[in-house]
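User: Second chain of the day. Same drill as before.
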Amino acid sequence: MREFRFRTPSRVLRGGQASSALIAVVLVVTLAVATALAYQAQRAARSHRATAENVLRDYAAFASSELARRAQRELQDVLQTQLNRLTLTCDGRERLPDLKEWVQVKDS
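Assistant: Same format as last time:
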C-alpha cells in the first residue's frame, strides 16, 4: 500500500512561492513579447507610411511632367495653326496682314 503523507505548512508555502514565481516569470515574458510586437508594429507603420509618401511623390512628379508635356504640345499645336493661318494671309509683300484680313482668315 502507498503511504499517504500530509503536507506541512512549509511545503504548501514553498509550492505557493514556486507557482507565484512561475506566474511572475510568465507575466514578464508576456510583457516582453507584447513590447516587442508593439515596437515591430510601430516600425511597420512608419515603413508603410514612408513607402506611401514616396509613391505619392513619384506619382505627383510623373503627373506634373505629363501635364507639362501635354500643355507644351497643345500650345505648340495652337501656335503652329495660328502661324500657318498667318502665313496664308501674307501675299508675298513681306508684310503682316492687317486686322480685317486676319479676322477673315480666322473665320474661314
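The CA atoms of residues 99 and 105 lie 10 Å apart.

User: Great, on to the next one.
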